[in-house]
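Re: your question about Homoserine O-acetyltransferase

S., sorry for the slow reply, the queue was backed up all week. Below is exactly what I fed in.
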Amino acid sequence: MTGRDAPYDVHEIPEFTLACGATLRPARIAYQTYGTLNAAKDNAIVYPTWYSGRHWDNEWLIGEDKALNPDRWFIIVPNMLGNGLSSSPSNTPPPWDRARFPQIAVRDNVAAQHRLVTEVFGIETLQLVLGWSMGAGQTYQWAVSHPEMVQRILPFCGSPRTAPHNKVFLDSLRYALRADAAFAEGWYEPDALPVRGLRAFARIYAGWGFSQAFYWDEVWRELGHTSLEDFAVGFWEGFFLDGRDPNNLLTMLDTWWNGDVGATPGFASTEEALASIRARAIVMPAEKDLYFPPEDEQWAVSHMKTAELRVIPGVWGHFAGGGANPVDTAFIDEAVGELLSS
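Result:
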């Protein structure tokens, strides 16, 4: 069984100290696996989730007709800290509940995932780490934190360091959500969510997630929407009102805002951290992504030793990596297959 109704597993780490200094007791990492780990334990792939995504949201790139074929590969999809399934403001008991939940770094996610991969499965080598958006940020971090394990990486529509323009977007989301009086500084009750703030949050996202050309060409009609307002309400507001907790959103937003592989202990800069990556890489920005434009990832690739920049063409912007457009899916899948066959 796959999808949101399928059962999933949870790995508990009794004491997990975060980069900020706080300790979760325990930290819980929810995950799903696809395929079977072979006897040599050398067919493993890690495919982290993205901002507010859950493990089933990654399934569009997994299948017998895909390069991520579970008949051949053992694919682990760990849920990000803060996404509502792994340890999050919404499911952590006092004293670290709700607005008191501690700050999570990208490298905290990777450290927890490393514990999962090694402690639960005894895996020493990862054939591939890949991910979309914040999943791409975790992909870069895996390659920096564990170069001895990671053979290949494919970050798509994401970056090793959050750019200033990206932070402007994230701050607008933060202020819109917190401006709703019902937010109550994060101490709202589960049955009294700041709905106005969430709707404003969604409307800001709508201007960034897809490109100008996507809207000019009315490509939203391909997703079944009948007008621009129908798309804004049905797709965007519906997305963020579908069980997404505001404190969870802010926790993951802070993780995104502070993302930088250069903050990894032992490195003096992002450039130095990128230069340390040993894994073969195909870095795949989308042509019209407003968050992670190709020129930003061209800069990242220029500091990596074995990396290729391969731009996803088209008008879908950031959502070229979201699995909604079959043409983009085929383009990404082809690169995954190329990496895994090398």
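The chain has ten helices and ten strands. Strands lie at 9-13, 16-17, 23-24, 27-34, 44-46, 74-78, 128-132, 152-156, 280-283, 307-309.

Happy to talk it through on Thursday.
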